[in-house]
Amino acid sequence: YDCPATGPARFFDFGNGPSQNNILLTFSDACTYKPYAFIMDSTNRVFRSTLAITPNAWHHLAVTLSGTQIILYVNGQPGINSTVTGLGTLDVVRSNIFVGKSNWVYDSYPDAAFDEMRIYNRALTFAEIQIDMLTATVTATTTPPVVTSIQFFLI
């Protein structure tokens, strides 16, 4: 990941457009190489990691939200552990689900490679983050996959 020219590049951005109930994770803020999570409901909340990532290296990023506690992990270590105050409902249908893209058109695309992304329906514990970080979802191979069919659902 290299520092973007315009706006913080997103790892993911879930929302309904700019400033519309967004939950996002960025790679860096102002070229500090410290990732941050952002929750945007009626109030904007930014949770900046104290741990930095190194450019041109693989990293594991994870963010959990359990009740009012948010933890942003960098390479398995808590980069921030904070309480979210005044949190409204997060049970909102989000139609713009982006990975590697922002709901804001002026933000940069990340100059980065993605290996795996996992989404859970609950917050993982510290121990589960450690296991998750060290467990591949697929077996490594140099053979490209053959797509025989694609399933999708329209809701």
Task: List its salient traits.
single chain; 155 residues; mainly beta; five-stranded antiparallel sheet; three-stranded antiparallel sheet; 8 strands; 6% helix; 28% strand; disordered C terminus
Q: How many strand elements?
A: 8
Helix content: under 10%
Q: DSSP strand (E) fraction? A: 25-35%
First and last CA, distance: 34 Å
Q: Mind explaining what this structure looks like?
A:
- The protein starts with 9 loop residues before the first strand and ends in a 21-residue tail after the last helix.
- The strands form 2 sheets. Strands 4-3-2-1-8 form a 5-stranded antiparallel beta sheet, with no helix packed on it. The protein has a 3-stranded antiparallel beta sheet with strand order 5-6-7, with no helix packed on it.
- Strand 1 (10-15) and strand 2 (23-26) form a beta hairpin.
- It is globular and about 45 Å long.
- 6% of the residues lie in helices and 28% in strands.
- It has 155 residues and is mainly beta.
Summarize the structure.
This protein is mainly beta and 155 residues long. It has one helix spanning 126-134; strands spanning 10-15, 23-26, 36-40, 44-48, 61-66, 69-74, 77-83, 96-99.
Please outline the helices and strands.
Blueprint: E1 10-15, E2 23-26, E3 36-40, E4 44-48, E5 61-66, E6 69-74, E7 77-83, E8 96-99, H1 126-134
Antiparallel strand pairs: 1-2, 1-8, 2-3, 3-4, 5-6, 6-7
